[in-house]
Design brief:
The chain is α/β, with parallel strands linked by helices. It has helices spanning about 30-40, 70-80, 90-100, 110, 115-125, 145-155, 180-190, 200-205, 210-220, 245-255, 265-305, 310-325, 330-355, 355-360; strands spanning about 20-25, 45-50, 85, 105, 130-135, 160-165, 170, 180, 195-200, 225-230. The strands form two sheets. Strands 1-2-3-4-5-6-9-10 form an eight-stranded parallel β-barrel, surrounded by five helices. It has a two-stranded antiparallel sheet with strand order 7-8. The protein binds phosphoenolpyruvate and manganese (II) ion.
């Protein structure tokens, strides 16, 4: 098996202009595709996107125009010079898109969640290393599943490979259509440092007014580019109407982006980093002390034959700290995750007191 950690970057990196993939959620008519692409080609858009096979949540919705949309994308390519991209969800889509000379294929979030579907696509891509493939994160927040999908495509010999962070399904989420959970994309970058990662603020936000702030956030974090839905008449769009921008709105968003340098090792930054290092040492110190107290509690629980897990106490800690953290600008999700991992380690240390021999044999 090829090791995906050896993957290189797709379009080079270096604080330059972010790569921009833009176009309608769905190709709806030849004229809509042509008109949208004509406007976008003047805005420095690198790749024109349009979905022609649409995975709809409910049956009976608009499921895309299908294969006839491929010739509309071919026409965009020859008229504007932009590379063209569409979503593929099975081997038949891949075969049709490759035969039509589509430059970039992306795998949607519902598809990357299924290893069977991703493997089927990988098999169909075998021998077509000229094509670029972008893998959206799976709908569920599972980094291993995302990396597994990338690895399947890489194993098929595709080295022009990148990822798209489009956020994760969260039942009842108020602000975002799909929660960013940035730490998952950051961990992907840490695990595969050279992999090209784009952000899709349209599906993340679900509302056009969120596209600009999410895009800037992605640039601030060092993403390599953006995939943004754009329609010549968004209010008439047959899918994802609320999140699509007009070409003029896209221009405003792109013009407003503030570029960030990848290597800003100025003196000021060095000083701030030293402060961060100091904070980290203090955190380590506090955690060490907390674990020592936790072990003392473990000794007490064992002496009184108490069970280790006391859920009310845990819930109480998480609730109190989430509220306190919110007052200083930290998200409840962050505080919950943090307290959860600290609590898990406390439990592990207490368990060691209950079953010292088993734990030693594990090491
Ligand atoms: C899309 O890009 O149009 C799309 C369906 O995206 P996702 O797979 O992220 O939902
Ligand atoms: Mn869409």
């Amino acid at each position: 098996m090829r090791d995906i950690r050896e993957i290189g970057s797709l379009w080079g990196r270096g604080g330059g202009k972010p790569l921009v993939v833009a176009g309608p959620c769905s190709a709806e008519s030849e004229e809509q595709v042509r008109a949208t692409a004509a406007s976008l080609s003047h805005l420095g858009v690198d790749v024109f996107r349009a979905g022609i096979w649409k995975a709809r949540t409910h049956p009976g919705g608009f499921e895309g125009v299908g294969e006839r949309g491929l010739s509309w994308l071919q026409a965009v390519k020859s008229a504007t010079g932009m590379r063209v991209a569409t979503e593929v969800a099975n081997s038949a889509h891949v075969a049709a898109a490759l035969a039509a000379g589509i430059d970039v294929l992306w795998i949607g979030a519902r598809t990357s969640a299924s290893p069977f579907a991703t493997q089927e696509i990988a098999d169909a891509l075998h021998g077509h290393d000229e094509v670029t493939v972008l893998v959206k994160n799976p709908v569920n927040p599972d980094l291993e599943l995302w990396i597994g999908a990338l690895q399947r495509i890489y194993n098929a010999g595709i080295t022009r490979l990148g990822a798209i962070h489009r956020g994760f399904t969260a039942y009842g989420s108020q602000l975002y259509r799909n929660e960013p959970r940035w730490h998952i994309a950051i961990e992907l970058r840490r695990r595969l440092p050279e992999l090209t990662i784009l952000c899709d603020p349209s599906h993340m936000g679900g509302k056009r007014e969120l596209v600009a702030p999410i895009s800037q956030c992605a640039i601030d974090m060092g993403f390599d580019g953006l995939m943004i839905e754009c329609h010549c008449a968004p209010e008439q769009a047959r899918s994802d109407s609320a999140q699509q921008l007009t070409p003029a709105q896209l221009k405003t968003v792109l013009d407003s982006l503030v570029a960030r340098s990848p290597q800003p090792l100025t003196d000021e930054l060095q000083t701030l980093r030293l402060q961060i290092d100091q904070c980290d040492r203090e955190l380590l110190d506090v955690l060490t002390r907390r674990m020592a107290v936790s072990r003392q509690i473990g000794v007490f629980k064992k002496a009184h034959n108490l069970q280790i897990l006391q859920p009310e106490r845990y819930d109480d800690i998480v609730r109190r700290l989430s509220e306190a953290g919110a007052q200083t600008g930290m998200s409840a999700e962050f505080m919950q995750t943090l307290m959860q991992v600290i609590h898990e380690e406390s439990v592990r240390q207490q368990l060691r007191l209950y079953r010292p021999s088993q734990d030693e044999s594990e090491q």
